[in-house]
């Protein structure tokens, strides 16, 4: 197994390979500047250890940006568990052992890295991690956790979709064609919300059951491989990251993009191409902060529903600020959002 050393701008990246389970474990901490690092645990198959490390480091950086923009006193981190076979094919004992090893790794950070659920892990998995001695957010309410963060993420994405639509010149979602990629915990709830606003839904998911449920809402289904060619007024990516590179940005047929998927762009070049074509991009680390607000706000800052909803409402104001900065500075909204995150991080750090 080969591993390239990379300068990714973060603090540290720990890697552990385990022969017994066949899993590889990565914990990336991008920043401690605002407090302990926080970010969920992603468990899926990766083509190589390099790919798993790259995903963990990029996701940890996105967490730093997300938490700083929202003014939450935490640094960015992320865990990746590279599975030997798809999660659905792991027997329960082997999955339990994987979670035990993960808990041991998280505990080694001595409270300086806090995890939670992400793609491929659930609140019940976080119960196991917690029970094995590592603090985990997003556990089941039965064990004192705040439960799934997906509903809060979806509420925030819904706000971002409406702001991005407004920036693209649409007063309301009623009558617009909204294309949603991924109908999981977040995407399905966003679909319900935009359908209630009167939007026409086009959807795609690799999971047929999720598609069937959306079709019952009145959505039109398209094959997953066609999503990036389908014309829409708004594109809402709620599946996987890395789907928009500069080529896709140059051909995608939509007016605005706002969704939940972390790191939806492969890099800054894609953002510039979108900007050049007049396609509004709501940066994902602003649009999808709802889950982090829900978990970190409730579990670290003692927030209740009122404070969480107030913070979610700020997503709209932050996006307006980013759209305005991008226009004034002649930069992409992605770059404007990164600048805002750096300024807020610096301000929070000096006020500590
Ligand atoms: P999920 O696993 O519940 O849903 C993802 C959905 O995408 C699944 O239905 C899956 O079948 C589908 N999918 C996977 N590959 C696909 C493809 N190629 N084409 C179409 N559909 C595909 O995850 P989620 O919790 O709904 O999160 C969705 C995205 O939002 C993820 O990228 C996640 O990192 C991000 N996110 C989630 C939260 C949260 O609170 N859950 C917070 C921030 C960011
Ligand atoms: C994300 O927003 O991508 C997360 O990983 C959410 C999160 C935030 C804080 C602790 C654990 C998970």
Notes on the protein architecture:
- The protein has about 350 residues and is α/β, with parallel strands linked by helices.
- The chain has helices at about 50-70, 90-105, 125-130, 150-165, 185-195, 210-215, 245-250, 270-275, 285, 290-300, 305-330, 335-350; strands at about 10-15, 25-30, 35-40, 40-45, 75-80, 115, 175-180, 200-205, 220, 235, 255, 280.
- It has 12 helices and 12 strands.
- Helix 4 crosses helix 5.
- The mean pLDDT is about 95.
- It has 2 domains: about 10-65 and about 75-145, Leucine Dehydrogenase, chain A, domain 1 (Rossmann fold); about 150-290 and about 320-345, NAD(P)-binding Rossmann-like Domain (Rossmann fold, 3-Layer(aba) Sandwich), CATH 3.40.50.720.
- The strands form 2 sheets. Strands 1, 2, 3, 4, 5 and 6 form a 6-stranded mixed β-sheet that branches. The chain has a 6-stranded parallel β-sheet with strand order 9-8-7-10-11-12, sandwiched between helices.
- Helix 1 links the parallel strand 4 and strand 5 (about 75-80).
- Its EC number is 1.4.1.9.
- GO terms for molecular function: L-leucine dehydrogenase activity; nucleotide binding.
- Belongs to the Glu/Leu/Phe/Val dehydrogenases family.
- InterPro entries: Aminoacid_DH-like_N_sf, Glu/Leu/Phe/Val/Trp_DH, Glu/Leu/Phe/Val/Trp_DH_C, Glu/Leu/Phe/Val/Trp_DH_dimer, Glu/Phe/Leu/Val/Trp_DH_bac/arc, NAD(P)-bd_dom_sf.
